[in-house]
Amino acid sequence: MTQQRTASLTDLPGEFSFIRRCFAGLAGPAALDLRDDAALFTPPQGRELVMAADAMVENVHFLSSDPPDTIGGKLLRCNLSDLAAMGARPEGWLLTLARPPHITDAWFEAFSRGLKADQERFGLTLMGGDTTSTKGPLVLSLTIIGSVIPGQAIQRRGAQAGDGLWVTGTIGDGALGLQALLGKLADPDGVLARRYHTPEPRIGLPLYGLASAAMDVSDGLVQDAGHLARENGLTVTIRAADVPLSHAARATGQTWRETCLTGGDDYEILMAIPPEHEPALLKSGCVQTPHGPVTLTRIGAFSAPDHGQSGVQVIDEEGVPVAFSRGGWSHL
Amino acid sequence: MTQQRTASLTDLPGEFSFIRRCFAGLAGPAALDLRDDAALFTPPQGRELVMAADAMVENVHFLSSDPPDTIGGKLLRCNLSDLAAMGARPEGWLLTLARPPHITDAWFEAFSRGLKADQERFGLTLMGGDTTSTKGPLVLSLTIIGSVIPGQAIQRRGAQAGDGLWVTGTIGDGALGLQALLGKLADPDGVLARRYHTPEPRIGLPLYGLASAAMDVSDGLVQDAGHLARENGLTVTIRAADVPLSHAARATGQTWRETCLTGGDDYEILMAIPPEHEPALLKSGCVQTPHGPVTLTRIGAFSAPDHGQSGVQVIDEEGVPVAFSRGGWSHL
């Protein structure tokens, strides 16, 4: 022990002032001002909790050049999409980050602003987290907590042969947006890039009593539909021509159709809907949510597995199977 | 769309078989077999939830050469220590990992074995998570969920002037263990290295009705005692000679005393204990937990802030203030 600077021990170390500056403004009551070892959360009475965790890595899930406020917002929105897929209401979130030296405090202040706007919009608050340093890329990991009335969570299992395959919103804009940001595609109005940066989680989608199974589309429509089919031991057939595309996606032309169907980053909800609920939906074409009406489109149907093999097939307007050069994203 | 390999779409992508192989054996009922977008957890009736998240980065928090089973176990144990500090019971955990190419499947299988042994020992199961790739170091992020009887969580705030400062177990072994692993220190029996690899979270420590405030020691005794003092607007004085050291730590000699007091990686619990509870504790020197008896040592006391400045001071046997070359770890 040397005789030096006791005074420094009463100063706040850098990590703590960083947390206070960038994250204290996001903290809700469970967070105990982000000063404790853990958050203290009273679960809403008579509800089950729904929990998911997603990590995002610099230059894998976002570009270093992306606006930092959209990165914070996107991380939260991707996790919100997992809650939406089960019909859950958001309650709170925890964040860990591994911070490399090239990410500045100003970057984190903008990152935090994006998170603040989105947590206010979707009605949840920060509960806790951890910050650490790394010599590698920025790694962000978000755990989200939601809740649902017991027994009303919609899962991936539950689809039956004969159920229709439905999807919210439009497919492919996120994947095209990434290509636009990489300079491979024109995006005159920036619509596609916006959809890549700011997906719209379908929070409040009234799945209970409507869908027999659901999941969110994050790794590409075709791959994710395959997961949904396999979880239920079924085949699902997607009619490519029925997949809803935005005006901006249509304008990119036929060459980009495969990207739309397999590209990922949609964060729309894929549902199995029993036949008895389909006529009303086919008529209205949408459902109401607290965040506005959401269009629903029937893009195919579930059937008994083809030769005992469950999975996905895509057909064209003549019913001829379509194949793809790749199925979707696998993160490993 | 090209005419190629529809068959591949019915195969399990690599990410999914990896999760099944390495993590399905850890999953509890809330995890829905790790096949869904989120976990579904029924909170234990009449209890509050306690939640914490911690990240560990390769070559910051662990060495690439550390046995992978101890890395999994340590990550879980560090998070369990956050629950222990509030007097909470473990319920479940979520994990995200950013995986670089140099970390093999065999590595993750051993990592998972360490987690399995420890989750069984401490009575919790895996609820969910996410895996992704990175070109940087391995980053692991764990969110832990615990529960406590409402109103019985012990927080950092609550200490009063006159309370004693107490600590569980022994201090410094983890920090010395790291130095031993770095080859800077002899550790003939490997006791110190074991304490670095496998900290002992003080789950089940009966804090309620005993401590007025508590936290776990992760960033060094002196720095963390400073946090506890500042959170309460008090000064805390540590008597260096009273800090409990293991035989192995004592054997390293006086040169390593500063490392013990400031090094971190202890995962012992630091408590403020009101004077009325102290005589019984001074007599018994330990408390019972479901994982065996835990020694408690009085190492100092809280007092009104010195010249209005709250914080920590360390004194020697003559009451003379001792200073250190550094206060503790800050992760940023």
From TrEMBL, chains A, B:
What is this enzyme's class at the first EC digit?
A: transferase
Task: State where substrate binds.
Answer: H61, D265, W329
A Gene Ontology molecular function term of the record? thiamine-phosphate kinase activity
Q: Does the keyword Acyltransferase apply?
A: no
Q: What is its EC number?
A: 2.7.4.16
Record field: catalytic activity = thiamine phosphate + ATP = thiamine diphosphate + ADP
Annotated positions binding ATP: G129, D130, R156, S218
Identify the residues that bind Mg(2+) 3.
D37, D82, D216
Q: Name one Pfam family in it.
A: AIRS
Annotated residues that bind Mg(2+) 4 are located at: D37, D82
The positions annotated for binding Mg(2+) 1 are D54, D130
User: Which pathway does the UniProt entry assign to this protein?
Assistant: Cofactor biosynthesis; thiamine diphosphate biosynthesis; thiamine diphosphate from thiamine phosphate: step 1/1
Residues at which Mg(2+) 5 binds: D219
Keyword tags? ATP-binding, Kinase, Magnesium, Metal-binding, Nucleotide-binding, Thiamine biosynthesis, Transferase
Q: Where is the PurM-like N-terminal domain?
A: 36-148
Q: Tell me which residues bind Mg(2+) 2.
A: D54, D82
Summary of the function given for this chain in its UniProt record: Catalyzes the ATP-dependent phosphorylation of thiamine-monophosphate (TMP) to form thiamine-pyrophosphate (TPP), the active form of vitamin B1.
Additional remarks: Reaction mechanism of ThiL seems to utilize a direct, inline transfer of the gamma-phosphate of ATP to TMP rather than a phosphorylated enzyme intermediate.
Q: Which family does it belong to?
A: Belongs to the thiamine-monophosphate kinase family.
Q: What name does this protein carry?
A: Thiamine-monophosphate kinase
Q: What is the lineage of its organism?
A: Bacteria, Pseudomonadati, Pseudomonadota, Alphaproteobacteria, Acetobacterales
**Encoding gene per record:** thiL
